[in-house]
């Protein structure tokens, strides 16, 4: 009885070539898919019409923050990080702000509505700053977050007046479905990008995961990443 022969050398080589080809093609497809997903993600993070606190041509380095105006951590970030970062990197980076009001903060949506209503009159940045600069006046009650909509609304009206807004138009826009739709779009985009808490920041599409324990540590860490991106 003849001995059983194994596969010929030609068969082995042919199989190896096919395997390599599959791996290469598969790798190309994976990389292409990742690139496409990344581009889609970046577009979702910074869609047309999103508010910018600073903007540079080409958006070479883009920082996107999803925030909740009644979030104490967001207020701390604003005071210790983003307010000065906005000034120090003006003209160098594009700084985008998106809404992500959390259910645990009863005045987060009214505040976001106030900011978006101010944007209708070209005063988004003014309302953004007023909401955080006066955080204790409307957002807190003692040691807890406030739920006093009437008090907060009165404060928002003051900020609108100080910014030179048409107050009646501002009030109409605050209650408009169009303004709520903008907030809903931001929340949907944030959720799709994996946002589940605030503040959440993305630098050039990559989520920023701070390791520092203090606001000062996080500030240094974020600035280092921005500087590296600018130098790249």
Automatic annotation (TrEMBL):
InterPro entries referenced in this protein's UniProt entry, alphabetically: Thioredoxin-like_fold (IPR012336), Thioredoxin-like_sf (IPR036249), Thioredoxin_domain (IPR013766)
TM region(s), chain numbering: 12-31
Keywords associated with the record: Disulfide bond, Isomerase, Membrane, Oxidoreductase, Redox-active center, Signal, Transmembrane, Transmembrane helix
Domain Thioredoxin, residue spans: 42-231
UniProt GO MF annotations: isomerase activity; oxidoreductase activity
Gene3D superfamilies reported for this sequence: Glutaredoxin
Stated family: Belongs to the thioredoxin family. DsbA subfamily.
The protein's name in its UniProt record: Protein-disulfide isomerase
């Amino acid at each position: 009885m003849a001995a059983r022969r194994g596969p010929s050398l030609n068969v082995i080589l042919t199989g190896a070539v096919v395997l390599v080809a599959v791996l290469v093609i598969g790798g190309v497809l994976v990389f292409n898919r990742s690139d496409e997903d990344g581009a889609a993600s970046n577009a979702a993070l910074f869609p047309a019409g999103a508010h910018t606190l600073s903007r540079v041509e080409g958006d070479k380095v883009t920082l996107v923050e999803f925030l909740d105006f009644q979030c104490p951590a967001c207020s701390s970030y604003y005071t210790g990080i983003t307010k000065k970062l906005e000034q120090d990197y003006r003209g160098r980076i594009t700084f985008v702000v998106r809404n992500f009001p959390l259910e645990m903060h009863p005045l987060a949506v009214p505040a976001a509505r106030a900011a978006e209503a101010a944007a209708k009159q070209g005063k988004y940045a003014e309302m953004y700053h007023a909401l955080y600069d006066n955080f204790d006046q409307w957002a807190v009650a003692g040691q807890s977050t406030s739920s006093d909509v009437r008090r907060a609304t009165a404060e928002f009206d003051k900020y609108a007046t100080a910014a030179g807004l048409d107050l009646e138009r501002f009030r109409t826009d605050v209650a408009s479905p169009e303004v709520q739709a903008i907030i809903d779009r931001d929340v949907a985009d944030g959720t799709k990008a994996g946002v589940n808490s605030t503040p959440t920041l993305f630098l050039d599409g990559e989520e920023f995961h701070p390791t520092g324990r203090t606001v000062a540590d996080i500030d240094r860490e974020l600035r280092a990443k921005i500087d590296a991106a600018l130098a790249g």
